Amino acid sequence: MKTVKYIFTLFIIWRVCLFFVAFSSNYLIPQFGARFPYYNTALEPTGLPNWIWGFGNFDGVHYLRLAQEGYIAKFSQSFFPVYPLLIKFFNFLPKDPAIDTRTFVDPSYFYTGLILSNLFFLGFLVFFYKLLKLDYSEKIARLSLILVLVFPTSFYFGSIYTESLFLMLAAASVYYFRTKKYILAGILAAVASATRIVGIFIPVIFLIEMFMNRKNIKVKELASQAVGLLLAPLGLIVYMYYLNRNFGDFLLFLNSQPGFGAGRSSQAYILLPQVIFRYIKMFLTVKFNGKSRFSSFLECSFGIYFYSDPLILVSSLFQKNQTELSMV
After folding, report:
1. Nearest to residue 58, comparing CAs of 134, 142, 156, 179?
2. DSSP state string for 248-262
3. N or C: which end of the chain has fewer CB within 10 A?
4. Among 119, 116, 117, 104, residue whose Cα is nearest residue 47
5. Cα 93 versus chain centre, distance
6. Is the dihedral of CA 238, 169, 224, 321 positive or negative?
7. How far is CA 173 from CA 39, 100, 122, 190, 208, in A?
8. Could you tell me the pTM of the whole model?
9. Distance, CA of 129 to CA of 136 (rounded, Å)
10. What share of the chain is helix, strand, coil (3-state, %, to 5)?
C-alpha cells in the first residue's frame, strides 16, 4: 500500500508540474502560431484553455480523428490502431449534438484520450517498479521512477499519444514473462505490436530471458514460452492483414509515412555523424538573438543527455537483465 501511495503521489506531482509549465508557457513563449493541422477542428471545440488542449496537439489530433471516424483520411494508416480503438471503446461521455462530426471531433474524445493516457502512464509506473524490484533494491526502483518522470520528454506520457500505452504494455509483458506467465506476456506483447511498430522487438527480450535461464527450463515451461513468443507479433500481423484486406497494401503503415514528412530527406539513409555535424554547423554559423541562443544551448544539452544513453547501455550490457530494462 505504501508503494502504491508513493507512485500515485509522484504521478500527481508530475502531472501538476506539467500543467503549470504549460500554463506558464503562455507568458514565456510567443503566441501560438497554429502551425499544425486540425487543432481548430479537434482541440479548440473542447472549450478548454490551450495549456490543457495542447496535450492533444500534433499526432494527438490524428488519434482523435481515428477514434471518431476510423481510417478514412489519406495516410492515416501510419497510425497504429489500438490506442484510438481504446479511446473509442471507453468514450462513455455524452456527445455534443451541436457538433458537426463531418468536420469537427466531438470534445468527449479529447477528454477520454487524455484520461486514458494518464491512466496508462500510471499503469506503466506500477509495472516498471515491479519489474525493477525483481533485480534491484527499493531505493533503486524508486529513484528510477523519479528519473523517468523528470526526463525532458516525459510530457509525451501525459499527452494524447501512444507512448504511455505502449510502455505500460511493454513493461507488463516483460514482467509477466519473467514471472513465468508466458501466455499473458505474449498477449500483452501482441497488443503492444499493434500499438507501435517497435512492439515487434519485445520478443527479443523474451528470447534473451529464455537464453539466460536456459539451464532451468523444463519441457512444459518451454512449450508455454514458445506459445508466448508466437503470440507476440500477432498484433502487427492482424493489422497488416486488415490493411491489405481494406486498402490492398500489407505495408501501408510504412508507405504512408512520406505523407507526414518522414521521407523528406533526399538521402535514403542519414547517419548519426551527419546529424551531429549539421547541428554543430548550425550552432556555429547561425546569428543568434537572446531567445534563439538559449534554445540552441537547451537543444545541445538535450542532445548530450540523449546520446549518453547508449554509453550507459554498453557499460552495463553484461549485467543481469539490463537489456530488458533498456529496451522497455
Report:
1. 156
2. S-TTHHHHTGGGGTT
3. N
4. 104
5. 25
6. positive
7. 35, 40, 16, 9, 14
8. 0.79
9. 10
10. 70, 0, 30
Can you read off the three cell numbers belonging to residue 82?
A: 489500438
Q: Rounded to an integer, what distance in angstroms lies between the CA atom of residue 304 and that of residue 104? A: 41
Percentage of the chain lying above the pLDDT 90 cut: 45
pLDDT of 206-262, one tens digit each?
998 888 887 877 888 889 999 999 999 999 999 999 999 998 888 888 888 776 655
Cell, residue 94: 455524452
Instruction: Say how many CA atoms lie within 13 Å of 142 toward its Cβ.
Output: 12
Residue type, 120: F
| pLDDT tens digits along 260-283 | 655 544 455 566 676 677 767 766
Contact 150, 141 (CB under 8 A): no
Q: Which residues in 115-152 are b (16+ Cβ under 10 Å) and which e?
A: ebbbebbbbbbbbbbbbbeeeeeeeebbebbeebbeee
CA neighbor of 65 nearest in space, from 112, 101, 36, 116: 101
Q: Which grid coordinates belong to 302?
A: 538535450
User: What pLDDT is stored for residue 302 in this prediction?
Assistant: 45
- Angle between helical axes of 163-178 and 107-133 (0-180°, round to 10): 30
Closest CA to 139 of 154, 129, 152: 129
Find the mean pLDDT for residues 101-114. 90
Among 104, 103, 121, which residue's Cα sits nearest to residue 55? 121
Place of cell 502504491: 4
What crossing angle do the helices spanning 163-178 and 182-193 adopt, rounded to 10°?
160
Q: For residue 40, what is its C-alpha cell? A: 481548430
